[in-house]
Write a structure and sequence with these properties.
Elements: E1 3-4, E2 10-13, H1 21-32, E3 39-43, H2 45-54, H3 60-72, H4 77-83, H5 89-100, H6 105-110, E4 114-121, E5 127-130, H7 136-146, E6 156-158, E7 161-165, H8 174-179, E8 185-188, H9 213-220, H10 222-238, E9 242-245, H11 260-278, E10 281-282
Helix pairs in contact: 1-2, 1-3, 1-11, 3-11
Length: 283
């Protein structure tokens, strides 16, 4: 029996670097079944995947995450040393949207859904929730900033403000979705149920991001904040306030994974989980 979702149900997309391949599989299944939400808020890799979902371009995100990685090998320490980012920004944010698999701006503009991408403001240490419908360069800048992992990517300026990965302060922006008038949401996670980070928060020394003391504070509490969000999501799930789509297999993909076979397995798992969801729910 197919259950109907509320008309104002929102969609929340977690980040996670290359773990976002799972999300690209889920979203491709959504597009196959023409499941589209009126509001989407996305972080980091979720923001990049979300753009292809908002432009109704199936397998585009998969191509960028897997096929393009196989062809161009855009993750490397050489990129970090030469270009300041472990992910080749020229391939991902210049050539990909304009040449390799052009972004369908017309469909994106005509899409009535509202799409927000989360960044971290380096000056304040707080999350910014940014949207852009018409300016192609600003769309790309926001997506790039949202996906700029700390330490391994350059700070990106948006509207003259230095920004980094939104996952630093709001990895799972379900509270943002509820505050925007969407009390019930579908949340696509990139971690297995019950996962908690075992990393330890540390005070960031002033030599790192020395011009941004509030960013250092945010980075010093990153693990604590993320684990609190994971607990919140599982609590909301138990209470029936959200529906969660997450990996079921043990996660074998890290933030900067370049193992094509592992990425393909994760994508296929995401597609299967997305299909199962679409066969059970509709708007």
């Amino acid at each position: 029996m197919i259950q109907r979702l509320e008309r104002h149900t929102g969609l929340v997309l977690e980040g996670g670097g290359m773990r976002g391949v799972f999300t690209s599989g889920v979203l491709d299944a959504f597009m196959k079944y023409e499941l589209y939400f009126p509001y989407v808020v996305a972080v980091s890799a979720g923001a990049c995947n979300g753009l292809s979902y908002m432009s109704h371009q199936p397998r585009r995100a998969r191509f960028s995450n897997i096929d393009m990685l196989r062809k161009y090998g855009y993750i490397s320490l050489k990129n970090l040393l030469v270009q300041g980012s472990i992910f080749d920004p020229n391939i991902l944010y210049e050539r990909f949207p304009s040449e390799i698999v052009p972004f369908d701006y017309k469909t994106y503009v005509e899409n009535p859904a509202f799409f927000e991408m989360v960044t971290t403001n380096c000056l304040t240490g707080f999350a910014e929730y940014l949207s852009e419908k018409y300016d192609a360069r600003r769309i790309t800048a926001i997506a790039k900033a949202s996906s700029s992992l700390p330490y391994v990517a350059q700070i990106t300026n948006v509207d003259g403000i230095p920004m980094l990965d939104g996952g630093i302060v709001d990895s799972i922006p379900v509270l943002r979705a509820t505050s925007q008038g969407h009390p019930f949401n579908v949340v696509v996670m990139t971690r297995n149920k019950g996962y908690r980070s075992l990393e330890r928060d540390m005070k960031i020394p002033p030599i790192i991001y020395k011009e941004y003391p509030r960013l250092r504070v945010a980075l010093s509490h990153r693990v604590e904040v993320y684990n609190e969000q994971l607990e919140m999501v599982e609590r909301m799930e138990r209470w029936g306030e959200i529906l969660v789509i997450r990996p079921q297999r043990k996660m074998e993909v890290g933030r900067t994974c370049s193992d094509i076979e592992k990425l393909e397995r994760l994508y296929e798992e995401g597609f299967r989980e997305g299909e199962k969801f679409c066969q059970s729910y509709k708007l």
